[in-house]
Amino acid sequence: SRSQTRQRQQQVAQQDPSRPAFVDPGEYQTLYQGDRLFGCCCRWGTGTEFYGEGHIYQGEWRMDLRHGQGTFWYEDGDRYEGAFRNGYPADGTFFFAASGQKYVGQYDSSRPGSLRHGWGVFHYASGERYEGEYKNGTQSGQGSFHHADGTVEVGPWLEGSPIGKHVATLPDGSTKTHRYHRGRAAHVEEGQPASV
Fold first, then answer.
1. DSSP of 97-148, one letter per residue?
2. What b/e sequence results for 168-179 when a residue is b if at least 16 CB atoms lie within 10 Å of its CB, and e otherwise?
3. Which residues contact 146 (CB under 8 A, 6 or more apart)?
4. pLDDT of 75-130, one tens digit each?
């Protein structure tokens, strides 16, 4: 219901001071406040749009689409900041409110879905992070996984799982070679510590 949406937005706004105060669009699906092309209905320039579900977008518009730099606040408190292209996220940072995780990188802006695509860095709540290639929303291509203990593992990924040969460099400079099959290390070769 709309009263529940308003209440939820008040709670979310308390957690994120940067979030604009929510304006209920009323009987309409959306409410836009901002620049228009020659004063007509086409959104162009900068503006804020409020969505009935509780989402808010604030930023640049072109040809009635989110295009340029902007911030999109989701009703659950998640937030995307960065570039939009033809209505969709293109290159920026997505903050996960509940977990404290974040993704910094590129998106496939050619279609709906906001899929991570291209180069990106995913920061986990544990302090670990993945840096590398994404395809269709998953870790696919060459990447490095940075463990909380300082170990850095480099190798290929496919659909979110490590595959093939990965070389892990431990904090003491020694290396281990992992060979992954279906996301699990099937074989490990120990290396020597780096000479001081």
1. TTT--EEEEEE-TTSTT--EEEEEEEE-TTS-EEEEEEETTEEEEEEEEE-T
2. bbbeeeebbebb
3. 128, 129, 130, 131, 152
4. 999 999 999 999 999 999 999 999 999 999 999 998 887 899 999 999 999 999 99
3-state secondary structure of 188: strand
Residue type, 127: G
Parallel/antiparallel/unpaired status of strands 65-73 and 43-51: unpaired
Only one residue has tokens 């009935």, namely 52
What is the token pair recorded at 44? 């162009």
- In angstroms, the CA 122 to CA 128 distance is 9
Cα gap 9→101, rounded to integer Å: 21
The total number of residues shown for the chain amounts to: 196
What pTM does this model have? 0.83
Residue the block writes with tokens 């291509």 = 141
Burial pattern 7-19, b for ≥16 Cβ within 10 A else e, equals: ebbeebbeeeeeb
Report whether 13 contacts 6 (CB < 8 A). Answer: no
Q: Are strands 116-123 and 88-95 parallel, antiparallel or unpaired?
A: unpaired
